[in-house]
Amino acid sequence: MGLIKKRDLPPELEKVAFALEEGAVSELVEEKLGWHILKVSEKHPAGVVPYEQMRAFLKKYLQEEESKKKLAEHIAELKKKSQIEILLK
Length: 89
Fold this sequence. Notes:
Structural class: mainly alpha
Distance between the termini: 50 Å
Radius of gyration: 23 Å
Low-confidence stretches: none
Number of strands: 2
Number of domains: 2
């Protein structure tokens, strides 16, 4: 699964995953999607990522959000100017 953080998993799996020690394997765990066995390969302490490491990600994210907003506004404007007729029977 790769690295996970709290609230990435269903509650049943999260409870077990975060209780296990590094290298430990769980017993069978049931949740709504079926049965699972979890193994914790490594643990990393939670923390705040420095701004310099997140800068490129944040820039791209904010640009995409702005693009989505402008696209939605453009579509709304086009709909106002359009006359749509549905001719299906």
